[in-house]
Amino acid sequence: MTNILKGLKPQSVLNYFEQISQIPRGSGNEKAISDFLCNFAKKLNLEYIQDENLNVIIKKQASKGYENCPGVILQGHMDMVCEKNKSSNHDFLKDPIKLRVDGDMIYATDTTLGADDGIAVAYVMAILADNTIKHPALEVLLTTDEEAGMTGAMNLDTNQLSGKYLINLDSEEEGYILVGCAGGNRNCISLPLEFTTSDKQGMLIEVKGLLGGHSGSEIDKNHANSNKLMGRILNLLNIEYDLVSVNGGLKQNAIPRECDAIIAINHDDLDKFNANISEIQKIFNHEYKASDPNIKIEVSKASYDRVLTDSCKDKVIKILNLIPNGIQTMCADISGLVESSTNIGVVKTKDNVMLFESATRSSVATRKDDINNKIKLLAQCFEAGYEETDSYPEWERATDSKLEQISIDVYKKLTGKEPKILTIHAGLECGLFLKKMQGCEAISIGPNAYDVHTPNEHISISSIENTWKYLLSLLENLNQY
């Protein structure tokens, strides 16, 4: 291990964060990190459970004087979103995350950092290893596959848990106490492809330089979506061309930053094509000068084996342009809160099919259903397949929550400030647990993290320490209520 974070505070938390950063743990690849956490518990002589979905529960008895307090579940997820810059050769299946420190911030090098939600794993490891920390009976719950579909949480047997208070550690803004979130699902249009031949010049069109971001927490920033921009490019070209392929984005829940398409044009149209691209570049620069000032459209020659039929090409262009994307509705009763949205995060050309994969979110279930139905109708219009997966419920704010009031009181005593109580548009696992665990109350907290789900993801060291102090104070003060 490189000890990049050595000497930084809180040392125990950052030491564990650096340790888990050495372990590849993308969604669907959690066996190594799950086993690591079990071995960690075993070394501390703590009771642990590893289920068939690789979720891990670690239990620690209450500190002296806390035996009669309600039990606490500390919860986060062990998987991370695997995004990287196109120029990076990082292999998320075997390479450690390369950490770097810039002032108060921790970054990775050309990849996502994994602080979402590696910082939760680090926090709970530090608590479990330190017998001087005062706390009620603890059940640490670390789930798998949160980023790809929350299947770990969906399949968890909550009868293995007895805690009354659930503290989720998957939030990204210090000073906020989250008490509700949107529900969501994934959906996919699969368009069958038909091919023909062409003797035209192959050209690669690349859209790059976008900021991207988390498709829940950052959907309100109006960042450009590279897949939607490519749809516009293909629709705006006023030359005759054949379409070979479109590929953009890596994750449904990340606003895509890059997209490329290969087309075939007549040799005589090259100058006109370049002029087209220049005009479209000006349009994008004007529209996104505030939210994505570095948008670039680059073109170069490319080779290909076959092209889509005109009918298929027409369907691809129409789906890319017509598929819903971005904010759909805003909450009427909470100013500034997104109520429903959808993100066309991935477009893939695979053998004889093109896939259009979206993540849909809403705090109102019927709004989510409405968006799904629109995407399904779009698929039917073009004789394409449609699939809906990984549905998870919204988390509705509880009335008269004792845990919420305790968390507010402790924050005010510790900082002298009022915390902000918030429901968010991003999805958290709390809704799934609360549906299964009658009488359980939940909040979500976390340190300041930025540009999550992108290679620019970074997290504030001072905020990690502030949130650590708050978490310890919250645990310590639970015997006063």
List keywords for this structure.
alpha+beta; 6-stranded mixed sheet
Mind explaining what this structure looks like?
With 481 residues, the chain is an alpha+beta fold. 29% of the residues lie in helices and 28% in strands. The chain has helices spanning 11-20, 31-43, 115-129, 151-154, 226-236, 270-287, 310-322, 365-381, 402-415, 430-436, 461-477; strands at residues 47-50, 56-60, 72-77, 99-102, 105-108, 138-143, 165-168, 176-181, 183-192, 195-196, 201-208, 213-214, 241-248, 254-255, 259-265, 296-301, 307-308, 326-330, 338-350, 353-362, 385-392, 420-424, 441-444, 449-450, 458-460. A 6-stranded mixed sheet has the order 1-2-6-3-7-23, with helices on one face. The chain has a 5-stranded antiparallel sheet with strand order 18-19-20-9-21. Strands 4-5-25-24 form a 4-stranded antiparallel sheet. Helix 1 packs across helix 3 (115-129). The longest helix is centred in the middle third of the chain and has 18 residues, at 270-287. It is elongated. The mean pLDDT is 96.
